[in-house]
């Protein structure tokens, strides 16, 4: 007997606007887009932020192409949740079929989502209009409170507290339940209750964590977003198993998010900060919820044998310290003192010696000169390089 497993991939996790900044690159800069493959092969996409383009470029037709149907749930019409649509290449392939679900906006009336897409692709905002999209597209209106089935999965929509409205979705699959509740501000009793209904007993509860608890009480009150602390409270109260902090502020650097995650883990046992490329599987034997991070150091890796002392925290939350050997390291750049003055934006070949138990090893790298400063030693310059290969 095969075990039902669902796979949830995070293609975009940033809120409000994409960020292309080295300081935010580890968690990622694309705006909301998630993909859930249910055990029956049903493909569900949550939101169409800029992460959707990445999903399109690594497209694998659902069910091995036998039933190339994809269901796309759109929470609301703010830019960060729709901007990936024109750049989603599977929409330009005739055989594909997409079922879009969203609500009727009081600002747009009937066929709101269809109108949003058409307006977004109207000339002169985009070089081609919707007629260039040859895939089949169907639009379905859903309202807060609606439930419907897609394959053997049950989807429930609930209103959340956000300017111009936003839907949260709860997806129950045979492998487990995912609640997706982004763009939501606590403080409206009725809508807080909808959020709790979405989260109740969910295996994965994805919640808006754009602001810090302090911002939420002061400068960002009324902006339509939440904090890690509110997410942790709801998760604990409603018995959600794992909380995923989502919709990171574009001004939150990786270091700020590390600190937010650390604080959230003190409040609630099982928390992850959504990270671009992260995949969570549901229903696997043993651990029901397993998170996998993308290979972040596949480039520029060099074998080494450096002695090291490592201090950290175990899975069970205990501090540890251990002496060990670094087996390989990935390198981004270095500061090198030189008597010669290399040209800015030129290449340097750098060979470093790595001490090892079997004697010295040479580590060869190619660097790209990004800055040149005066060095502390007389007659030298300090050369900043980024390693390219
Ligand atoms: Zn948003
Ligand atoms: Zn929004």
Question: Briefly, what is this?
Answer:
The chain is an alpha/beta fold.
User: How are strands sequenced across the largest beta sheet?
Assistant: 6-5-4-3-2-1-14-15
First-residue to last-residue Cα separation = 46 Å
Low-confidence stretches: none
Q: What class, by secondary structure content?
A: alpha/beta
Strand content: 35-45%
Q: What is the molecular shape?
A: globular
- Roughly what is the average pLDDT, rounded to an integer? 91
Number of helices: 6
| Oligomeric form | single chain
Element-level helix/strand string:
EEEHEEHEEEEEHEHHEHEEEEEEEEE
Provide key terms for this protein.
6 helices, alpha/beta, 389 residues, 21 strands
Protein architecture, described:
The chain has 389 residues and is of the alpha/beta class. It is built from six helices and 21 strands. An eight-stranded mixed β-sheet has the order 6-5-4-3-2-1-14-15. α3 crosses α5 (228-238). The longest helix is centred in the C-terminal third of the chain and has 14 residues, at 254-267. It is globular, with a radius of gyration of 24 Å. The model has no long low-confidence stretch (mean pLDDT 91). The structure holds zinc ion (ZN) (2 copies).
List the helices and strands and how they pair.
Blueprint: E1 6-12, E2 33-37, E3 43-46, H1 51-57, E4 69-73, E5 97-102, H2 112-120, E6 136-141, E7 147-150, E8 153-160, E9 166-173, E10 176-181, H3 189-199, E11 204-208, H4 213-217, H5 228-238, E12 242-246, H6 254-267, E13 271-273, E14 279-282, E15 289-292, E16 301-313, E17 319-330, E18 333-338, E19 347-354, E20 361-374, E21 381-387
This protein binds zinc ion (2 copies).
The site of one zinc ion (ZN) has 4 residues, from loops.
